[in-house]
Amino acid sequence: MMIKISKSARQVIQIAVVSTILAAIPASGVFAQTATPTPTTQAASPANATPATTPAPRPGPKGGPGGPKGGDPMTRAQKTVDQVKTDLGTAQGKMDVSTAQGWVSQASSLLQAAQSDQSAGKTARAREEAGASQELAMGADELMVAKLGSQLPSQANRPTPPTPPSGQTTVSPQARVSRDLAHSYQSIVNDRDQINAAKLGDPWPGVLSQAEALYKDAYNSYQSQNYDQTSADARVIDHLTHAIDHALNVSSDPTQPVSVPAPQF
Is it the case that residue 44 has pLDDT exceeding 60? Predict the structure, then answer.
């Protein structure tokens, strides 16, 4: 006897058969899905690779009053100038203070100009003038520190530099000073070009000439392996070139574009 199967029942049976067949096909068959590899963002390092280290930033000029920290630029400059004037009084009669005296006088004049500009609402200009004042004063103090050291009031209570951690790589005096002096040279070259381009007036061409003369002395000291004197001269040069940088900012109008040099490389 034949059993009649309705059309809908046949469809159900067909679907069940197909499902059974598909389930029996291994995952590696034609219906298997290929896994998409997750991209790696970092290659595996060899077992003996030396871990990368970030070089320490070049330290700023050391010695001298270092300039008071905190507060507004005007207050910092005033405190520095006052402190250096005290050192200058101590240095009188113990060394030639004519150069230091000249820089302190210029620093005082710049500070007065900064105070006037701040009262007139020229805040950006006043800030740069105060910065130039502080740097010139610090340069004068470095000049005296190199000769008199702890005899100066600003040096009397300076803390002893911390001892480097054990195991830290020791850098030779020549290696350290050579980099400081090379940095000073490049600063002088850059400032000379910018002073000429900006036609910056007194006292800055004279300050640059003093920095150049100091560099010659520092270079001779370096060749003679007198690294302490080389380092002292380099610190003074750094303060002078930083003062010039502030003066260049004063001379430029921030609302106007500057000349953009074409690539020479």
Answer: no
